[in-house]
Amino acid sequence: MKRTPKNLYTVCTLEGCDEKHWAKSYCRLHYTRFKSTGNPGPVEKLIAPNGQRRHYIRGGYVAVSDPHKRKRDGILEHRLVMEEHLGRKLESHENVHHINGVRNDNRLENLELWSTSQPVGQRVEDKIKWAYEIIKLYGDKE
Known about the structure:
Layout: H1 28-37, E1 54-56, E2 62-64, E3 75-76, H2 77-86, E4 94-98, E5 111-115, H3 124-138
C-alpha cells in the first residue's frame, strides 16, 4: 500500500471542513472522532454565541478561544458557563461537575458547582471559622 505524503493535505479532507490537517487526512476534531469511533462524524462549526471559536480538547471537553490569553487550549467552556452564572471567577478550590457525565454538554442545568475546600485543623473553633467562610462565600440558602 502506497502512503500519501503528509504535506499533500493542507486542510481536512472531510467535505465542508476547512480546518488545518492533523493526521490521516483529517483535522484534529475529525481525526479524534475517527480514532475513537471509526467514523469522523459530521462537519460542524463550533461557534460560541459571542462569536468566539469553540473546539474539542483532550478528554472530550470543549474549550473557547480567548483572544486575551495565549493559552493553547483556551478556556474550558463549562467553567466559563458557571462563572457567568455566578457572576464571578471560580475560586481555586471550586470544580464544575457534569451531572450526566457528558463532558461537552455544557448546559447550565447539567452543571453543578463542587468545592474541595475543607478546614485545615480539627479544633471546633477552626471548624466554626471555616463554616462562616463557606456561608459568606455561598450564602445562606435557607
